[in-house]
Amino acid sequence: MTGNSLIDSQLDYYRARAAEYDATFVPYMDPALDSVLERLRAKNIRGEVLELASGTGYWTRHLSGLADRVTALDGSAEMIAEARRYALPNVDFRQQDLFDWTPERRWDAVFFAHWLAHVPDDKFDAFWAAVGRALRPDGVVEFVDVTDHERRLEQKDDQEPEVAVRRNLKDGRSFRIVKVFRSPAQLEERLTALGWTCRIDEVHPGFLYATCRPAAR
Ligand code: SAH
């Protein structure tokens, strides 16, 4: 519990959705997969890799093939149980709330997909500070997310129109979650201000891929 109802509701939603996640996510993501894999395989992802918000393991499978070892963090034990089905030999899963996370070691690369849009603006800088602490000096951060193009897919929540959207599960349960749509240009501006140098491209309609390094000091 964080005492922040939207952040708690978001994790509750994913815990409850874990078993039905792939049924909707896979057909949504698969058409863009080849474009994303082209960037993922550009040789930045290697050595010891940290994956954040690893979910059902859709990306973990690919990271496992590129990395020596993968550490995969997710706040939901239910999601981790789904990802374990792939029985990936070089992946260590750990349950971790990413809004209450202080990295205790460093990795060669940090990867996350469909996570940053769930990080609200007021937690954005602290999240990136933690990512910076998790990265070796010559390391790289790569992430996949939606562009603002994907906004049309969501049911906006009138109470918090810019941040919260409503998601429903098959059994009818309904949750509010964070969804902040940031364009590649907005992300680049914000990350530059935090000391990152990024290349962010829309690699497939609606999906962006970012490669970021700490700016040379
Ligand atoms: N990266 C995966 C999953 C994205 S869905 C993919 O692309 O398919 C978002 C993930 O964030 C879910 O697995 C959910 O359990 C996790 N999550 C939600 N809130 C979290 C929190 N506070 N800390 C850590 N993980 C969280």
Main features:
5 helices, 7-stranded mixed β-sheet, 3-stranded antiparallel β-sheet
Mind explaining what this structure looks like?
- The protein has 217 residues and is of the alpha/beta class.
- It has one domain: Vaccinia Virus protein VP39 (Rossmann fold, 3-Layer(aba) Sandwich), CATH 3.40.50.150.
- Helix content is 34%, strand content 29%.
- The protein contains 5 helices and 10 strands.
- The strands form 2 sheets. Strands 3-2-1-4-5-10-9 form a 7-stranded mixed β-sheet, with helices on both faces.
- Helix 3 links the parallel strand 2 and strand 3.
- The relative contact order is 0.17.
- S-adenosyl-L-homocysteine (SAH) binds next to helix 1.
Quick recap:
The chain is of the alpha/beta class and 217 residues long. It has 5 helices and 10 strands; from the N terminus they run H-E-H-E-H-E-E-H-E-E-E-E-H-E-E.
List the topology elements.
Elements: H1 5-40, E1 48-52, H2 60-66, E2 69-74, H3 77-84, E3 91-95, E4 107-113, H4 121-133, E5 135-146, E6 155-156, E7 164-168, E8 174-178, H5 184-193, E9 196-204, E10 207-214
Parallel strand pairs: 1-2, 1-4, 2-3, 4-5
Antiparallel strand pairs: 5-10, 6-7, 7-8, 9-10
Helix pairs in contact: 1-3
The chain binds S-adenosyl-L-homocysteine.
The site of S-adenosyl-L-homocysteine has 20 residues, from helix 1.
